Amino acid sequence: MKRRQFIASAGLLASTGTVAKAAAKKPLLHHVFFWLNNPNSEEDKQQLIKGLKALKGIPTIKEIHIGTLASTEKREVVDTSWDVSELMFFDDEAGQKVYQDHPIHVDFVKNYAHLWKKVIVYDSVDA
Predict the structure, then answer these.
(1) pLDDT tens digit string along 38-53?
(2) Running DSSP on this structure, what letter comes out for residue 79?
(3) Domains present along the chain, CATH in parentheses
(4) Which residue, 14, 33, 47, 95, has fewest beta-carbon neighbours within 10 Å?
């Protein structure tokens, strides 16, 4: 394929949204860190973990990991300030959007937000 043909084809693909659709099909990881209002309360921590486990009922979540701090070596680059985390795997951005709007997730936020003082989310796709 000549350079001009390639550029024309790439332009056509971009204008039809094929490139955007391909990008949207990349697996997405959704990593959320929670800081509890009462970090010393084991009851609050367990209540939040229970709520996070209920999110497994959302069908677009392919895999979920709910975690607490590991007792690994303390290093300057390791953030140990959070209390509970969740890591979810989705097939693509569309699956993550379904999760965001799903009634189970909406109820989770409504019923458990009183437990945390801070939340940080990191979303990433394959490079």
Answers:
(1) 999 999 999 999 999 9
(2) -
(3) 24-125 (3.30.70.100)
(4) 14
